[in-house]
Amino acid sequence: MNNIYLSKSRYCKARQCKKIIWLKKYKPEYAIQKARDIVLENGTKVGQLAKGLFGKYENIDFNENLNIMIDQTKKLLKNKPNIITEASFNYNNNFCSVDILKNDIDGVEIYEVKSSTEISDIYLDDVSYQYYILNNLEFNIKKACIVYINNKYVKQGNLELNKLFNIEDVTEIAKSKQQEIENNIYELNKYMEEHMDNEPKDDIGIKCFKPYECEFWEYCTRYLPKPNVFDIKGGMHLDKKFEKYYDGKISFNDLQNENINPKYLEQIDFELNNLQPKIDKDYIKEIIKALNYPLYFLDYETYQVAIPEIDGTRPYQQLPFQYSLHIIKEEGAAIEHKEFLAEIEDKDFIRHFAENLIKDIPDNGSVIIYNRAFEPARNREIAEMYPDLKDELERINCNMIDFLEPFKQRKYYTKEMQGSASIKYVLPALYQKDSELDYHNLPVVHNGEEASEAFLSLKGKSKEKQKEIRNGLLVYCQLDTYAMVKIWMKFKQILSK
User: How many structural domains compose the chain?
Assistant: First the structure.
């Protein structure tokens, strides 16, 4: 009955939800891809680097004609012992390419490479599916392993692959899943056959987000009222949202009398009743009183890569490449602006970032940030890399005041914030008629993820294209700190009434 073609990725998708496979076949136009370029690039780089984990290897290049890949694999398998990457196999319409195949005289070993820092259940499904195919092709599988990133590894000098990667033997788990895989493949084929002429009526659930957010979420929820329980922000757990959904409490009208966190009820109340802004003047007064001139409004942009390129850094460490700084030296003074944006070719850009920051914040005034968990942590990481800068970076950290808190704690809240304390919601809510403060109107970069990708995209670009991208980065980061200036102005305006 195995009529549908399955790859290891499609099998794993079906493990999350069988309807994904149906939608991909019959309604692919409704998919909204949310995978970030930087995530995909990390996966590609990790996969390529891991190929050399066991020394010299022979690679099977991708070909849309899978039979060509399978035939090439058969030829290479005769040359035992050897290492084959992307070794390709088919059994009963089930296809897989093995990331790394150790082809020994007495059998083979399977190595599935992942760019994450831990092993998830879906990775076990992935390698078990490969085991299933090779086992049914009567290979003697000596070992099945998952290769993943060691996030404790600190680069010093040349990359050490044996330290960068962890290898975990999951052979026994893969063996234990073989009947389950057989059943899953049968059930999926049956499911697709039963729904050749009609759309499945599978309900939404936690599976829509775990292990990955489904690209068909918008399609599958198109009939839900707006706003609904899934629009509640501020930390409401998914399982709680689905609990309400299954109980028929979906719209904000349904939820307004429910026993849920008062913060969520507040968002609902403001939305349904169009309430006037809630402002705790005493709280805001204390914030303003705590500020000392000069005022430094500061924001960082960072990126993460799986494979550390700079000595002293770890996989997925947040690497600061840009800051924006608005300065008000004293009461009534004009607003000044300073900024730093690293050159993509600069191997010492983190140190240059820190040195410029220290130069631009020479005095012990208040350093205003938006989310205390972020900038101070980056400064501490830089201090570990460059101990000679530690005292100055600690000085800056000690003077930090977080403007996120009033909005996070709902000391200032309006309907337009939609339950969010993100500055991307807060700023337009405070200044509703000012299009210059709308992140959607920015020319190139609109959020932090785009900033990371834009900076990394500078590699290999022409000078003209680099100039365009860099300008987009500068404009975006400048708005982040100007936004905090505008929040400060709004606070002062409120207290003056």
Answer: 3
Residues 121 and 169 in one domain: yes
Q: Is residue 269 part of a domain?
A: yes
Q: Show which of 191, 214, 233 is a domain's final residue.
A: 191
Domain co-membership, 481 together with 332 = yes
Closest residue by Cα to residue 370 from 486, 233, 235: 486
Tell me the CA distances in angstroms from 247 to 57, 187, 260, 372, 455, one per residue in order.
Answer: 55, 29, 14, 38, 46
- Phi-psi bin for 202: left (phi > 0), alpha (psi -120 to 50), beta? beta
Helix then strand count (H, E) for the chain reads: 20, 13
Q: Looking at the DSSP assignment, which residues form a beta bridge with residue 295?
A: 328
Per-residue pLDDT of the chain (497 residues; tens, 9 = 90+): 557 899 999 999 999 999 999 999 999 999 997 656 667 778 889 999 999 999 999 999 999 999 999 999 999 999 999 999 999 999 999 999 999 999 999 999 999 999 999 999 999 999 999 999 999 999 999 999 999 999 999 999 999 999 999 999 999 999 999 999 999 999 999 999 999 999 999 999 999 999 999 999 999 999 999 999 999 998 899 999 999 999 999 999 999 999 999 999 999 999 999 999 999 999 999 999 999 999 999 999 999 999 999 999 999 999 999 999 999 999 999 999 999 999 999 999 999 999 999 999 998 999 999 999 999 999 999 999 999 999 999 999 999 999 999 999 999 999 999 999 999 999 999 998 888 888 888 889 999 999 999 999 999 899 999 999 999 999 999 999 999 999 999 999 999 87
User: Is residue 219 domain-resident?
Assistant: no
pTM: 0.92
